[in-house]
Amino acid sequence: MASPSVNGHVTNTLLPELAHVPSLGTESGGDVAFAKGATSVDPATEIAQTGTMEPLEIVAAPNDEIVYPTGTKFAVVAMALGLTLVITGLDFSILATAIPTITQEFKTTADIGWYVAAFRLSFASVQFLFVNFERPLQPSSVLSILQGKLYQNFSLKIVFLVCCVIFELGSLICATAPSSTAFVIGRAVCGAGASGIIQGIFAIAVLSVSVRDRGLYGGIAAGVEAIALSTGPVIGGAITQSAGWRWCFYMNLPIGAVTIILIIAFFDLPQRNPNVDLPWKEKIKRLDLVGTTLFIPSITSLLLALQYGGTKYSWNNPRIIVLFIVFGTLLGMFAWLQYKKQDEATIPPRIFFLNNAAMNLIDYYLPLYFQTVKQVSVARSGVLSLPITVGLGISLFIGGAGTTLSGYYTPFMIVTSVLAPIAAGLLTTIKVDAKLANLLGYQALLGFGSGIGFQGPQVAVQTILAPNDVPIGIAIIQFAQALGPALSVPIGQLIYTTQLTTNLKKYAPAVNGTTLENIGLLNIGSQFQGSELAGILRSYDKAITYTFYLSVVLTCLTLVGSVGIGWRSVKQKQT
């Protein structure tokens, strides 16, 4: 689900394109078919762009009719899916304001990058098991809409419930973590569960909502998700300040338990998936286990090299060199494997955008700036981060409406590639004594600039690609936008750590990073005073703003994709 960053995301971050599944009706018979059959357009995206959903013709097949749940059963299933959207949506953004408190308890800031990367890397990697990156075959039954490999070959209900249990287990590990390492493990487990949950939510929705009503409920789901994502930092700050950061994860347990019980009791598959009866050997063969096995250690090796290179070990240390070699070798093998599995290139690489990576970097380090340099409370830092969300929400509407009226998405993508670097650049200028109005204004500009063209990639794949290739394009965007923050935040952490060490030697030579970690970031104001405190705050200011330079670079690079994507009107019929 590719979304802009409302503290990392918005309406499509978690929301896979609900109608990017093949039409339920086929030439060989099916129960539902799109009236015009030319393209498969996501209802949520269409609503965002046009404000309306074009009526779809429902064609009933005499021998394969799907019976959608109604009444109480439908309401309960919808509520269960909504609750799941809320807790997974919050999990993407709730940590932003809680991180300084977490680092204070664990007495280390070295793992900040891993708190984000572990979740994102796990989320992206496990998508290989849930998302089918190969061209979809023409479906022969209702259950062929399940594009995920696990969901195609195993019981949808069982796989979804297992993913919920995995997410709950990860939340429990995070909530009870005795150390930073345990917390990172919990985040990775949460990411794996969330990846499967997101795919499952909309697979269940497709089997629970008629084609005619999917636009309405897709829009509602997008709204629920957007609210969860945008309020995550505020909720996280309030919970952390009142009950403690661990309750950001404890609260997932009862909500998840209710969801599991409701799905068990009220959701029934409309027809049996014949693949469930396949031999286990055949099922395992259909999963991309080799790809996942190559990808995870590859990126992990890179993250380890970035974390320890230049800090614990020098860059020319054999350990760091070996990590880079392992990264390059395994990634090359993974790329070769994916290339061999494709019958031809499916989507141009220029549509990969770096806004999500840039925005997440700012989302996680800006609250750190507020709480350390400005010495504000955890809850207030969440409130002060809201201008990004406001600007983003306004620009998403303008971008969608503008695309609908003009028929072109490229101009809005170019505007994003111009405004976002300017806003990120302005954030690099903030100082210890920066005025609050400037901080809020820069954030609002960043949110507005990033959001106005963010829907462009999703619209582009629906416009440029053939209908059968749209799910592949969307899946690749989802994967890239999940992977971006997994890499950008650890790289930002490397910049932050290096700059903090350098600046402490310059502005507060009597203090070192270890001392500050033992004291805790939130206690700096009470433990130091005078010129020493001023030097420490200036060191943190320099370290944090230097990480924003990476956001400037990433947002500037989006101009290459925006200019090169070409001009194609969404009003033109796809041939």
Automatic annotation (TrEMBL):
Membrane-topology descriptor: Multi-pass membrane protein
Main location: membrane
SUPFAM superfamilies: MFS general substrate transporter
UniProt keyword Coiled coil, yes or no: no
Gene3D superfamilies (alphabetical): MFS general substrate transporter like domains (1.20.1250.20)
Keyword list, A-Z: Membrane, Transmembrane, Transmembrane helix
Record field: transmembrane: 74-100, 112-133, 153-176, 188-209, 215-235, 247-267, 287-308, 320-339, 351-370, 382-402, 408-430, 546-567
Compartments (UniProt record): Membrane
Domain Major facilitator superfamily (MFS) profile span(s) in chain numbering: 77-570
Record's GO cellular component terms: plasma membrane
InterPro entries per UniProt: MFS, MFS_dom, MFS_trans_sf
Designated name of the protein: Major facilitator superfamily (MFS) profile domain-containing protein
Organism: Coleophoma cylindrospora
